[in-house]
Design goal:
single chain, mainly beta, Neuraminidase, five-stranded antiparallel beta sheet, four-stranded antiparallel beta sheet, 9% helix
Length: 366
Amino acid sequence: MTTTGFRPGRSRSGLILAAAAVLAVPGAAAAAPSMSVLARGLDNPRHVALADDGTLYVAAAGRGGRACQGRRDERICFGFSGRIVALSPRGAKRTVQGDLLSIAGPDGTFATGPDGVGVGPDGRVVTVITSGPPRDVRATPRRVRAQAGDLLRVLPRPLTTLASIDTFEWRHNSDGVRGDRNSNPYAVLALEGREVVADAGANAILEVSGRAVSLLAVIRGPGRSQRVPSSLAQGPDGSIYVGELAEGAGTGRARVLRLGPAGTRPTVVATGFTAITGLDFGPDGSMYVTELTTNFRSQSAPGRVTRIAPDGRRTRFTRGLIFPQGAAVAPNGDLYVSNFSVLPGRTPRRSPFRGMGGEVVRITGL
């Protein structure tokens, strides 16, 4: 995952080798909580969201395409393989929206595109599409520019553009960092009559009401550090909670913040995380936090999910989680997470990942 979709992840090869090392080491005996695979063959699955009828919607960022730019490790490929996928409680999958922008390395890894998905109380399903700095976006084909940075309503049909998130950042430079009008809409929360978007590139949380975009909060760090908001959830208190990637802050320095009323500063409610990529709340008020890795600086797997009970007690789960993203908690307490979230649906058996691919897993008993 990068803060902009129009540049490849500079640590891609290191992360691949780290994951391969984890796959090569036999695991310990299974113990509660447990994990099972709900669905396989998903191209770079990212955020997930549950509907009231039990359908799980997955933002699958795709696997890029055949039109490529750049050289060697800087090479990126554009396509329209991004999808919003619906999974039944038994894992049956169907594509509810395809043909979405996808940008990836030539091997289909580390794609970005439709990275976030949200389900509103009225049943509408929305997604956000990656973007980048204006110069990078303007250098792409017209069809790419037409989707980049958009908030889209997927259901009910037809596919509808609700707002241009990147245009807001390019005009306002939300975090005020000079020379950094960078946009990467990465997570979306669909609420009553509005959407809330985490723009990871802008370090900003935005609100969309109708077609109007406004700034809710800037997620700041000390000095010029980039906090990179990557996850959103509505808490039992009705507040909006934000998880940070905080890639440059180091291991254990990512935070969960709560947004107060308009005009107040975000407050820190939980610390000690690394590269947060998912956030949700359970029926008992527990907060669930997904971490892409447990040590970003050394680029090591596995990832982790932490449950924070209302009394503050933490329960952690790592077994089998390789670069997980997203979090959605069912009414019975089961947790859904995207796993191998930086891989296409299938990888070559002679590759470091030995045929593994993007999947969604269910964690019980956490």
